[in-house]
Amino acid sequence: MSKKKYTTSLFEVIAEENRRKIIDLIRKRPRSVGELVECTQLSQPGVSKHLRKLREAGLVIIIKDSQKNIYHLNAEPLAEIDNWLEPYRKYWSDKLDMLEQLLDEEE
Known about the structure:
This protein is α+β, with helices and mostly antiparallel strands. The chain has five helices and three strands, in the order ααβααββα. A three-stranded antiparallel beta sheet has the order 1-3-2. Helix 2 crosses helix 4 (44-56) and helix 3 crosses helix 4 (44-56).
């Protein structure tokens, strides 16, 4: 898949709590706008606005099912965030190892 340049960073897109909630819902299974409205208790225009941002960021894809649009998660762009977080995982892992060692020494 080719890299696209988006005007809004992925971090900005997922910083919004309702968008993360929508991502979590469609991670479990693909859903229609109506299902997302019901699950999030947001208005239909509100859900559609968030889905547009998620689609522009490449995080959701739409598959037509009869007359409904069904939204599916495309987790590939999240690899960018995962890659960015990798050095911090090592940092915290080292800190937790040091804490564990300190606690063991105190026993």
